[in-house]
Write a structure and sequence with these properties.
There is one protein chain. The chain is 16% helix and 50% strand. The protein has 264 residues and is an alpha+beta fold. The strands form three sheets. An eight-stranded antiparallel barrel has the order 1-2-3-5-6-7-8-9. Strands 4, 10, 11, 12 and 13 form a five-stranded antiparallel sheet that branches. The chain is elongated and about 80 Å long.
Length: 264
């Protein structure tokens, strides 16, 4: 029985290595490099002739200037786009025609463009569109218990990218790029500085779900009121070009402490 154990161990190791090699070979074979070569170029809607996307190398580009290029490959009979990847079944593919199903199961028929004018849609630099160079400054003087307080707010645009995944009119996932803000808030009592800090969206991580926060920007901070708790600032964190947002109450107390609650 003892002599059988080494033989059994060698057999099991050989079997495991064989299965691993087989899986790697199958995974490699699934990547359809021939189809990827056929898909290089600009593709337009078969009916409207509007430009849908351009495939160059292992990337797919969209004419919408806010949409980020995405990684692209063909696995088996499916287009695999983006990260996290989204798969779209290919119905038909030839040198000049591509038919695939979008996320709703609808078939999209595209033709390869033979017009140089269609390339113009991809000459714009996506990063330039959403860059905002304007700094917004506000100051407010308020009174509480016969004491004057001066609140300063400065909205500073940054180059911190926020990616938002959306589906275009054809039901294909694209990533739009936006830029976050850093907002400086200062509160003075006469010449005494009670509070002064740069605020980012990460400050609100305990009050906004992580998945939502990752796609959101710190939209704005406004002075809203003053009471015995201190100066209240209405804070907006939201997903760009969407109706969903979190409205928060950022309170700076008279002893310079900051507290955050969600507004109902």
């Amino acid at each position: 029985m003892k002599q059988l154990k080494p033989i059994l161990l060698v057999f099991l190791l050989s079997l495991a290595m064989g299965c691993k090699q087989k899986m790697q070979t199958q995974a490699h074979a699934e990547e359809n490099t021939k189809a990827m070569k056929m898909l290089q170029g600009v593709w337009v809607d078969g009916e409207t002739l509007e430009v849908n996307f351009m495939i160059k190398g292992d990337s797919i580009f969209y004419p919408d200037s806010t949409s980020q290029p995405a990684r692209f490959k063909v696995v088996g009979d499916s287009l695999v786009i983006g990260e996290p990847p989204t798969s779209y079944p290919i119905v038909s593919l030839s040198e000049n025609i591509l038919v695939f199903k979008n996320q709703n199961g609808e078939e999209l028929r595209l033709n390869r463009s033979d017009s140089q004018e269609d390339n113009i849609a991809f000459e714009k630099k996506p990063a330039q569109v959403s860059v905002v160079n304007e700094v917004v400054k506000r100051d407010t003087v308020v009174t509480f218990a016969d004491e004057r307080y001066h609140c300063y707010i400065t909205v500073n645009p940054t180059k911190f990218k926020v990616l938002k995944r959306v589906y275009n009119d054809d039901g294909v996932a694209v990533d739009n790029v936006f830029y976050d803000n850093i907002i400086h808030v200062s509160v003075y009592h006469g010449t005494d500085k009670l509070f002064s800090s740069d605020i980012t969206k990460q400050v609100y991580v305990k009050h906004v779900p992580e998945d939502f926060l990752n796609q959101s920007i710190l939209g704005d901070i406004h002075f809203s009121s003053i009471d015995k708790e201190g100066c209240h600032f209405e804070t907006i964190i939201g997903i760009p070009e969407a109706t969903t947002s979190y409205l928060l109450d950022t309170v700076v107390s008279f002893d310079g402490k900051m507290r955050i609650t969600e507004l109902k």
